[in-house]
Amino acid sequence: MTARTDMTDCPFGIGNTPLTPFSITLNGIRHELLLKEERCNAFGSVKDRVAWYILSQTIAEKGPVEAVVDASSGNYGYALASICQEMGIAATIVSSSSISAFNAEGIKRAGARLVIAEPAPGECSNAARMRVAGEISAAEGQTFLNQYANFMNPASHEHWTAPEVFADGPFDACFVTSSSGGTARGFSDYLKAERNGTQLVLVEPEASSAFLAPACESGKLKVPGYGSQRRSSFAGMRPDPGMLRVDEASVLAAFTLLEARGLTHIGLSSVGVVVGALEWLSRQSERRRVVCVCADGDERYLDEIDSRYIPSVGADAFDAARARLEPVIASMAPEVAA
Ligand SMILES: Cc1ncc(COP(=O)(O)O)c(C=O)c1O
Known about the structure:
Layout: H1 4-8, E1 19-26, E2 29-37, H2 47-62, E3 67-71, H3 75-87, E4 90-95, H4 101-109, E5 113-116, H5 125-140, E6 143-144, H6 152-166, E7 173-176, H7 182-193, E8 199-204, E9 242-245, H8 248-260, H9 268-282, E10 289-294, H10 305-313, H11 315-330, E11 332-334
Parallel strand pairs: 2-10, 3-4, 3-6, 4-5, 7-8, 7-10, 8-9
Antiparallel strand pairs: 1-2, 1-11
Helix pairs in contact: 2-3, 2-6, 3-4, 6-7, 8-9, 8-11
Bound molecules: pyridoxal-5'-phosphate (PLP).
């Protein structure tokens, strides 16, 4: 737990996010579902922790930096750009055309340069972002923070996010998704170091191959930060995490159902994690208590739900998923925190 001091020194209102309790009744069994609401961080996502942790540790090790560059699917870039703006550091963020309008505008509003990486033939978008960020650093001299391969990324979760979550344990299972694999690896390392037997479950769409399948498989990802087509640099943890596949049509259907009921304001990848948890709970024969790490909030997606995300899965798949998930979401209710 070496890095604790650096986190308490964080001047930006990052960390100590709420753990919001819900009950859910499936097959007559009432389970406890807790949502770690990372949207409540200063810049709105779990990646605030990673951006602050990597930047502050880099400065602590190497001294002041004038300019940084890094790759991001969007949330990390927005967090890094916002932190750099406050600290007077120039930031270049390399993302992909799939970045949300919310994050793209936020990065520019924070005064950072946003570069969209074009994948080379056979290259997945995540690998293209990393390559271009490295090229820019080599050509222009910015410090390349390299979140996708920098072990400070999982360390931020091992030493910060996970201890916060498990302070409110115990849990029967913990559900996360991946983009870089930082959260998954950090939680896995934490559980191993603490000899905590809680089952870690990764929830991803079919086309994702961050941990358990070969890289750059066919099939497109539809939600930024929900899965990755590049094998994570942090893969190889033991034990292998559990894996649950939840398709994007189910994610979008559940998102609109949760919004309509005013139950939560979590973002799309987080809803994927929750649907995975509900699927896991529906197979349990006794009462369980589980936690979902919810990476961001709905404000990043609401503007593009009808114009971009629902058309990406097709209206028929969306309607079918909505009909299937409606009774499940209907049995979910807020709990009064203990
Ligand atoms: C929307 C979203 N969900 C989840 C994640 C989880 O990411 P990681 O695996 O990098 O911890 C990210 C990270 O970029 C994200 O943007």
